[in-house]
Amino acid sequence: MLKRLMLQTVLLLPLCANLALFALFGHTLLPGRVALLTRLATLARGCVLDPSSRRYSRRVTFLWTLWFAFMAGLMLLGVLTPSWRDAALVAAGVNGPLCTAFLVAEFFCRRLVLPGYDHMTLAGFFRFLVRLDYRAALKAPMPGGEGRP
User: Fold this and answer.
1) Residues with Cβ within 8 Å of residue 130, at least 6 apart in sequence
2) Residue 147 — pLDDT band, cuts 50, 70, 90?
3) Which pTM value belongs to this model?
4) Across-strand partners of 148?
């Protein structure tokens, strides 16, 4: 009984984190809202993004939303179903490294998909993410007045 409770507790943190990130990314995809990564890209550039950049950042926001939904579902299965527990524990262990790999892969993919831009360096990209005041960024009006947070 204690072992089961400990396993469930180990899975609850990544479950809650993935659910929260799913909600954060997903709610910005609703009609009339600015996709989270569109918002961050706009703040990083300090200007309105062109249509191809907005489309790209919205698609990447959608991919992150799917990722967090998948991982949350896997964690939930691990909490509720003993047969899925091992898979969920593995997923909990690799979730962070896989998210980091996806973030870095997207950074390089962006350079291929949007070649005509002056892109940040990888170090500059991470500095931007670390220094950003996310609470203020989610509430900030967008240049051009598009969408709501």
Assistant:
1) none
2) low
3) 0.83
4) 33
Q: Are 36 and 61 in contact (CB under 8 A)?
A: yes
Which of 19, 129, 10 has the alpha carbon at shortest distance from 67?
19
Nearest residue to 129 (alpha-carbon basis) of 98, 107, 96: 107
Residue where the block lists tokens 């691990």: 78
Residue 65: both structure tokens together: 């939303």
Which is nearest to 25 in space by CA: 123, 134, 108, 113?
134
- For residues 129 and 143, give the distance between their C-alpha atoms in angstroms, rounded to a whole number: 20
Q: Give the span between the Cα atoms of 106 and 113, in whole angstroms.
A: 10
**Count of helix runs (H) and strand runs (E) in the chain:** 6, 0
The whole-number pLDDT of residue 4 equals: 67
Contacts of 82 (CB under 8 A, 6+ apart): none
Q: Report the C-alpha gap between 84 and 118 in whole angstroms.
A: 45
Three-class secondary structure of residue 49 per DSSP: coil
**In terms of Cα–Cα distance, which of 79, 60, 69 is closest to 20?**
69
Tokens found for residue 12 = 């609850």
- Structural contact between residues 61 and 37, judged by C-beta atoms closer than 8 angstroms: yes
